[in-house]
Amino acid sequence: MRSVINQIVSQPPPPGRTMTFATLGGITSVPLADLYEQSGRLALGLRAAGAGAGDRIGILAANRIEWVLLDLAALRLGAVTAGFEPAKFDPTPDLLDRYDLALLFTDMPMSTDTPPSKDTPPAAQQGHLGVARTTAESPCYPGSTPAILPISAVTDLIATAQEDGELPPVEYGPRDVTTIKFTSGSTGTPKGLAATAGSIDASIGAVQQMFGHGPGDNIFVFLPLSLLQQRYWVYSALAFGHDVTISTYEAAFAMMRRVEPTVVMGVPGFFETAKKHIESRAAGGDRRPAAERLFGPSIRYLWTGSAPARADVLRFFTDVGLPIYEGYGLNETCIVAKNHPGAHREGSVGQVLPGKKVLLDADGVVSVHSDNPVNTRYEYAAPGESERVFAPDGTVRTGDLGYIDDDGFLFIRGRADDVIVLDNGKKVIVRPLEEFLKASPAIEEAVVLCPTQTHLVAVVSPASDDADKGAIADRLAACNAAFTRDEQIKNLVIAAERFSIANGLLTSQFKPRRPQILKAYADQLAGSR
Questions:
Q1: How many CA atoms lie within 13 A of 19 on its CB side?
Q2: Which of 45, 160, 292, 358 has the fewest Cβ atoms within 10 Å of its own Cβ atom?
């Protein structure tokens, strides 16, 4: 298999394709050839600033063109990027030290109370890299270390790059690291993982084999670029010659119909929201026109993963003519299985990909072995975390429960940690209960818990700020009627504030953070004891 990473660092992309940036501030399109040329100049600028092969360049910013340019420039320089989510990190000198960063680019405000240090290099004092500049165009951080730069400094670096400079050739081996990525994490400090070029190549190659992206495609990406998997679609565009649109979650619904993508990547929560939007606007029960008004008329397929998708949501989009394919993977494994047009089975997450091997223990807990592993340990984690997740040969213990059918389709039943053992010894898998509750239009998210090991309780996030308590109560009654005696939910709490990333009850990939939810509603849940 050819290396996608080596291809995009060594040769320009096919002509005629574009990258579009669609945010609430407007839409900008850049030819991929121009993007490639600018990333080369930026790599020269970074090298002139002292960054080189093996150095780490941090990016702490929302989705924007500078994010993509920095990532591509680092690849072409042989440097290593570290993508930080703005909601989880702050641009402080401690971040530089903790992750051994040579430079950190950010769009976040910083303190300006302290004058520049006398130790600041003269180039920085003169405004090189935009560090001490005070113009409106290039915000300054006078109190910051010279290694923390406003992301607007990317423009300066490109403009001041040596006109006739040449980059030394870079070639990545399968085990060479291109980026440090961080787990979305439901608890504690995100764990850092050094991702290898071989794992990226294997994932992009497998996806290309399944879906055949090409000149007719425009792939729509709106999750944070700090998530490495989102940058795969940029690499794919450069390698296979298709368009790609970068947006933000806030702008996604407003921008899809304007840019007319052929493929939309989204987490299940996004598609659940889209389903409700379409249903509310379907005139006379005809949902197809409403779906086209939301997604545009050119959709070839929809992609989802990162969290379990409800069967009724998947069926809804397929029924309106927008086939949606669910897959499975983790930060530690990349993509493991994926439904696709040539092999799709309802309820599964697809057939296991070439180069991946799924192993099941006696309890059905899934482990994954990769021919090209992301890595075999965490780069940053609490003591013992690497050993808990990674076997000595690099096999990843996922903590998920699953099984494989006779045709090789993988089914995920839930998390092993979320299996509740009642005081009578009975084991309850909570995912089917939660999916049953969430099938109600009145319920956006549901978490089933068992604080006392005697009986089940649930916390639900309503579908609107004005919760439909009657519909929620009806759904609880239906759930208890459909499941066994040990699976009865004795008490249900309606969240006072809908789960969100901002209030800390959802991860960045919109998965419920169970410990935080239990803590937030402990007092109300205690009333059911």
A1: 26
A2: 160
pLDDT above 80 (res 396): yes
Closest among 142, 150, 128, 113 to 49, alpha carbons compared = 128
Start-end of H helices in 176-251? 197-211, 228-240
pLDDT in tens, 231-255: 999 999 999 999 999 999 999 999 9
Fill in the DSSP letter of residue 503: T
Phi–psi pair at 223, nearest 5 degrees: -75, 160
Q: Give the chain's length.
A: 529
Cβ distance 17 to 42 under 8 Å?
no
Can you state the percent helix, strand and coil of the chain, rounding each to 5? 35, 25, 45
Q: Residue 493 and residue 482: Cα distance in Å, rounded?
A: 20
Distances (CA, A) of 144 to 50, 150, 158, 252, 274: 18, 10, 22, 34, 42
Helix (H) or strand (E) holding 44: helix 32-48
pTM for this entry: 0.82
CA distance 508 to 474: 31
Tokens linked to 198 = 């071989």
Mean pLDDT for the stretch of residues 21-37: 95
524 contacts: CB under 8 Å, gap ≥ 6: 493
How many Cβ atoms from other residues are within 10 Å of residue 515's Cβ?
Answer: 12
Kindly give the residue spans of alpha helices, DSSP state H, lying in 305-372. 311-319
CA torsion 154→157→160→164, rounded to 10°?
Answer: -110
What pLDDT does residue 137 have? 37
Q: Using only C-alpha atoms, what is the Rg of the chain?
A: 24
Which residues are CB-neighbours of 362 under 8 A, at least 6 positions away? none
Q: Are 70 and 64 in contact (CB under 8 A)?
A: no
Whole-number Å distance between alpha carbons of 48 and 361: 53
Written as one letter, the residue type at 260 is E
**What value does the mean pLDDT take over residues 85-100?**
90
